[in-house]
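Page 37, top half.
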Amino acid sequence: MFTQLRQDITSRGQRIRHDIARTSSDIRHARDEYHLAKAERPRFVTRVGDLVARYHGVTLYRDRVERGRQAHSLVGVRATVSESADRRTDLGTVRDVCLTITGPDWEWTVPTAAVFSPRKVRAFAALINSHAAARSGNGSLLVGA
């Protein structure tokens, strides 16, 4: 009877420790995402209406994409997302996500921190692809006219 009671207390303690570790991990992730969002706020944009989105130093405008001092037109641009296999850490399973933006004669690879959700990277890549497709469509219409 005492051994069963001890096992129940031990397993509850382990579950509580696991829940505390998971909660502190979630709080760290939320804090990191807040700081990233704060750092990614647009500053000194000449026309805010042209800004579509920002992610890890890459800024998407309606007609171009910028990273640092490099700016390229969206014509022929394609964004893809690659994910590494899951790996175990002390606080759970982590997956590294990498955003690759490819143009006609250039390529950017943007590795993301493993704590961020891959859906944000996928959403940003989808935004780039949709704006690039619209831009390429408009460009081809202008060339044919």
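Page 37, bottom half:
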Amino acid sequence: MVRWLCVILTLTVGAVASAFAQQNDPTRPPVDAVTPVSSAEAADIQLSQIIYSDLKKLALINDKRVKEGDRVGGFTVSEILPNKVYLDRSGERITLSVFQPLTELKSGAEQ
């Protein structure tokens, strides 16, 4: 009886710890990083990389280098920041994000 209670307790603790670890993954993009667009449009626009410096602001979207003002999938690249890219179309704005930088983490992680 005690052995079965230990097994059940171990499985329960493991499941809870696993679920908690998935919610606090620092490399996971924030939930509000992308404004909802149709699934077809979202599948057509994929941000792979951002190159950001004082001299150069580029993003790699759909395997194509783009800069501010370029068009991608019917959207205009309105702004490129170190960790996100804003795309605009007819008053609609979507945000593409690679990941949240360590300096902006809001969980209790040490920096």
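Margin note: Strands lie at 47-52, 57-61, 64-66, 71-72, 75-80, 84-89, 92-97.
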